[in-house]
Amino acid sequence: MAVTKIESLEALETLLKDSSKVVVADFWATWCKPCELMNPEIEKLAEDMKDDLDVVTIDVEALKDVA
């Protein structure tokens, strides 16, 4: 499974409720340089651990109610 971009609080709540896997949430922002550096690692983690993890990204600027 690829990284899932969370678009709303409801989407996150549904994923957390329905997933049988551990959910890893990456909180990021466009202005965050360390976030940019971590993105390839997050993608690799999602691919390498796709059977065990659901990896999601959450834009802290767009989803302040989630962050």
From TrEMBL:
Coiled coil: none
Residue ranges occupied by any Thioredoxin domain in the UniProt entry: 1-67
Highest taxon above the source species: Bacteria
Signal peptide annotation: none
Protein name: Thioredoxin
Organism the protein comes from: Veillonella criceti
Lineage: Bacteria, Bacillati, Bacillota, Negativicutes, Veillonellales
